Amino acid sequence: MVDVILGLQWGDEGKGKIVDFFAKDYDLVARFQGGPNAGHTLYVNDKKVVLHQIPSGVFHEGVINLIGNGVVLDPITLKKECDTVASFGIDLKKNLYISERTHLILPTHRALDKAAELSKGNQKIGSTLKGIGPTYMDKTGRNGLRVGDLLDRNFTTAYIKLRMKHQRLLDNYNFQEDITSWEEEFFDALEFLKQLNIVNGEYFINDHIKSGKRILAEGAQGSMLDIVFGTFPYVTSSSTISAGVCSGLGIAPHQIRDVIGVTKAYCTRVGGGPFPTELENETGEELRRIGSEFGATTGRPRRCGWIDLVALNFACMVNGVTKIVMTKADVLDAFEKLEVCTAYTINGKQTQQVPFQMERIKPQPVYKGFDGWHTDTSKIKDYSNLPAPTREYVDFINQYLGVNIHYISNGPGREQIITIS
Ligand code: GDP
Ligand code: IMO
Ligand code: MG
Questions:
Q1: From 292's CA, which of 100, 181, 302, 403 has a CA 20 to 30 Å away?
Q2: What pLDDT sits at residue 195?
Q3: SS3 of residue 350 by DSSP
Q4: Which one-letter DSSP state was computed for residue 294?
């Protein structure tokens, strides 16, 4: 059986913390998409760690971690991250596996990402510039190189061929930066990568399923950044929704049991693109300050706003969410009044549906107001001890979405989570 944890908003919902919290109940944690554009924060012995490539189950003894075929892998980031993880006494030879079908991010992919963003001017996506888009383009364009190719003696020839192709594209963009040092680091990191456990990921995971092991699939980014169902073109380049689990790991749909969707008690977005409930005012700044809303990968300030139930409902629908985790509820402790978006007004008409584009038509949020709770909730352990207004807020969201919040995260720490039975 496979359970999935994924983001329901525009990323940074707190997936890393939640995966780390649940990981002890699983035998294997697998990333199925995305790459080092992800930044998943967790606390290990009160020390903050941000993971970009390695699944968030890595700090649990006896839990195996798999970088699945749907991921795009930057060997340089991976090597650095392995060093960090190893400094906690984790033996990656024992608990990290990488699928041979996983596509490699080359230095020229990163350069192409940068060149493409620059060429977009004020319509830029706000990419993390980690080479994600160009690598997925080479995957679907049938050009890319995969982790398994590393073990082939013709790898260097294939690399040079692809590099030349990329150079022509970079010349078209008039990209001038010297990437020699990136390439040196890359080849150095490839030698490191070759020493890790490279496996046939689809047999590896299906063998685990057959022998009754419990598997947790960890999403990166969020549903509203999905290549198809997100706010295109302001999205990432992978399938971030539950459908991506099957193609990103090589498992059948009927193996999936719970789809656990993670949402903040409010909403954030980093990078460009539509964000109907964004607060470009003092309240937005308060959310950013209290919630420490700065990107875990790029350090950029995150755009902040109220929770958007129209978008959340859409995300629950396309993912088939069975349980919800609401994170950062404690951040709302300080607010006197809260607002919840229950509909959009588009051209004077109200709708509860997410339109296929939100860039030209700018949906205006319709809000329902709630009283804040003005209590420090960060130390509360039982749902019944939460203030009545917090429970009203949760009840309303449950009713609206038709899926229940089963857990409330009330702080960044591993144990700061309330289970609702
Ligand atoms: P991810 O990408 O979904 O894993 O999320 P990030 O790690 O990018 O961002 C979430 C941030 O919120 C991190 O700094 C977490 O330590 C922090 N965080 C997670 N859950 C909570 C919570 O319940 N309360 C508070 N105050 N912070 C949280
Ligand atoms: P986690 O897993 C938040 C955003 C970028 C940009 C867009 C495309 O930590 O939730 P890309 O680098 O993929 O070409 O960027 O997607 N983005 C994220 N935003 N959290 C993430 O990951 C993100 N990964 C990408 O800011 O707007
Ligand atoms: Mg993040």
A1: 403
A2: 96
A3: strand
A4: B
